[in-house]
Each structure stands twice: as C-alpha cells, then as structure tokens.
Write a structure and sequence with these properties.
This protein has 2 domains: about 250 residues, D-Maltodextrin-Binding Protein, domain 2 (3-Layer(aba) Sandwich), CATH 3.40.190.10; about 100 residues, Periplasmic binding protein-like II (D-Maltodextrin-Binding Protein, domain 2), CATH 3.40.190. The chain is α/β, with parallel strands linked by helices. It contains 15 helices and 10 strands.
C-alpha cells in the first residue's frame, strides 16, 4: 500500500535527496529540488514492441524533455518490427528493458525467459473487433460463422478468449482470416470483423473515404466490439526487466527504479500535453500522419489514465484475470496460452512503488484523477 501523510513526505524527501546526491548535487527542499549535472550517466536500452508511434510517446517524451537525463540515464529507444520479439530481446541480453503485452511475455516466461513485469503502463485493453454496421456484429457472440480477422503473433489471444467464452470452436465455428496490420481487408469486404487497436487501426477506417458518400467514414458506419467491455481484455503494454539481474545486481535495480520513474513522468507529460507529444513522435520519424498520431496519443492516454493505484502499479485483479484467461483460452490446436499459473516473481510492484516515491518528491501527478481526453478531428489518410 502507498504511504501517506508525514511518513510519505519524509520518505519522498529522503529518496529525492539520494537521487540528487547521486547526480552530484543537493537540494534545500522538495518543492525547489532540481537535478544538477550528473557526474556519470548510465546507458539504458529499451526495446519497443512496434515501430515509432504514439503508443510509445511517454518514452520519447521522457527522452525529449530530459526526464531520463535528470535521473542520470542515457536511454536508447530501439524500434520494433514484425520479426522482433521484445521479451526475447530482453531475455537474450540484447536490451536492458522491453515492452510487451502480459500474455505474450508470460508465454515466453513459461518457455524459459526469466523476465519480470516491473510497471504495468496500460491499465486497460485497447483491442477491438470492427465491422460494418450492416453486418449485425454487436458482440463477440455474433462472431459465429463470420470471417474474423486477426494479426497473429500473440495478438489473437483476446479473440480466442472471446470465442471460448461464447462456446465457439475457433477451428470450426468461425473462419479466421490472417489480417495485415491495416484495415484494407475490412474495407474490401474480405473480412467481416477486423482486429483493431483503439489508438491505431480503428482510426484508419475513420480516415478512409466512404465511396457511397465521398466523405470520410463515421463511427456510425461501424460496429465496435471491445474486448475490455466483453470481459476478456488482457493486460497489454508493460515494462519488463531481467529477473536475474534485478535480484542480483544492485546497480541494475537502481537503474530500473529511475527508468520507471522517468518513463511515468513522460507519460504524465503526454497526458497534460497531448499535442506536444504528438509533435515529439512525428519528429521521431513516425510514418503515420499528424492527425492520426494525435488520435493515437489521445486514445493511449485513455488506456493509462486515470490510474487509481498510481501509473504503472500492477492491479492484482487485472493480473489474475489475464492469467486465468491465458490458462483457459484454447487456440486452433486446442492448446492454451499458458499451461499453468506463472511461478512466483512474474511481476513485482516494488520497483514502481519506489519510482512513485521519486515522483512524489518531484511533484508529479501519477494518478491523473482529473484526466479528460481531448476531441480529435481525423483527416483523410491521417495527415
């Protein structure tokens, strides 16, 4: 549980003093504390799950705004791709930290990757199944007999969970269609319901021209099934660390705390400066347009904020739901994502709790209780 009152103020001040001292300076008070030049910096590498986009804006913002530098960290952000498995990169020692969806990482962990979730950044699932309104698909129960698009690579777990929940055999009850990472199959009529993220592919259909009207499609043209609303949403983007190093290497553990603190500070900045973070991501070389990235930044914020327990804190109830679904959900071969419950140490709140204490000292709002999303107007093609 989080500390409060005088004890918290004392702990926060002590933690901040240690950090500032480590960077070669001191502070007269919490309110006026500012990091000074670091005597040394620690190189850190972070493996993304995908290409540069606002899904990862908080990390780019922490880099751009100097939050990592304030913690004496020199962070390199490594772009992902179809053939890159972040948790494998981490387990193989290629990077210091990695971003991954929880069920994917737990499957790798069960296969031998000794990794641990140290900060659950996305608190809610952003996966959807999108169909044209006239298809009559208003819930996952309506998937039966339909062509259901999915990306594979572990992104299909929630689809299988929904099918399992509704007693639909994924091998015979639906036609599963391999989907590209776009909405072309849906728009062409090759897929009845396409997999989409709230922050990415769903925007793609709203950026497309409706040939019947000559105008952009509108939300009323589609039905959207949210796996979070269906009760089978699984935890997604989390920061994973090397469990062996976390247990045996004090310097790595200290780096992990600082890295999580600065990353959450970056996400808080993006919550309060949506357009600025859009600009940061675009400047980093995103291939997606400015209006698409603003939509994405706004929708990603909804998956993080508000964070009642504190950004990054792993909610045991959401964790248990994800694990239960991963153990009960069957794929085409009848196998489940996990064959048994994760062993002890699959996640820890110790690192993020220490990170939040640092943010207490810096006056950073890490719950976002007053968060309100903005209104975004999409342009054709996301430009």
């Amino acid at each position: 549980m989080r500390k409060s009152g005088k004890k918290l103020a004392v702990a926060s001040f002590a933690a901040l003093s240690l950090i500032v001292a480590a960077c070669g300076g001191s502070s007269e008070s919490e309110e006026t504390a500012e990091p000074t030049a670091c005597e040394t910096t620690t190189p850190v590498s972070l493996q993304l799950q995908w290409v540069t986009q606002a899904q990862f804006a908080g990390y780019f913002a922490a880099q751009d705004q100097g939050f990592y530098a304030d913690q004496c960290l020199d962070v390199t952000i490594v772009e992902g791709g179809v053939d890159i498995v972040p948790q494998t990169q981490l387990a193989d020692g290629a990077v210091d930290f990695a971003l991954s969806w929880v069920p994917k990482a737990l499957a790798s962990r069960e296969a031998g990757a000794n990794i641990v979730n140290i900060a659950q950044i996305f608190q809610r699932s952003g996966t959807l199944q999108v169909s044209f309104a006239d298809a009559g698909i208003t819930s996952s129960a309506d998937f039966a007999g339909k062509k259901i698009g999915n990306w594979g690579f572990g992104n299909e777990f929630e689809i299988f969970a929904a099918l399992t929940m509704n007693g639909i055999d994924p091998a015979t009850g639906v036609e599963l269609v391999q989907q590209q990472f776009d909405m072309a199959g849906l728009l062409a009529g090759d897929i009845d319901a396409a997999e989409a993220m709230t922050y990415n592919e769903y925007a793609m259909v709203l950026e497309a021209i409706n040939p019947d009207t000559g105008e952009l499609y509108t939300p009323e043209d589609f039905n959207v099934v949210s796996y979070e609303d269906e009760g089978v949403g699984m935890l997604q983007d989390a920061i994973w660390a090397d469990a062996d190093k976390l247990a045996s290497d004090a310097a790595y553990r200290e780096t992990a705390v600082k890295f999580v603190a600065a990353s959450i500070q970056g996400w808080a900045f993006c919550r309060d400066n949506t357009e600025a973070c859009r600009d940061i991501v675009v400047a980093q070389g995103s291939t997606l347009g400015a209006s698409h990235q603003l939509w994405q930044m706004n929708e990603v914020n909804k998956l993080i904020w508000p964070a009642g327990l504190g950004a990054g804190v792993i909610d045991a109830t959401a964790w248990d739901r994800t694990v239960s679904l991963a153990m009960d959900t069957k794929n085409l071969e009848g196998s489940t994502v996990l064959t048994a419950a994760p062993t002890d140490g699959a996640y820890t709140n110790d690192i993020v709790e220490e990170a939040l204490t640092i943010l207490d000292g810096l006056g950073v709002d890490y719950t976002g209780s007053a968060f309100t999303p903005i209104e975004v107007t999409l342009n054709e093609g996301g430009n």
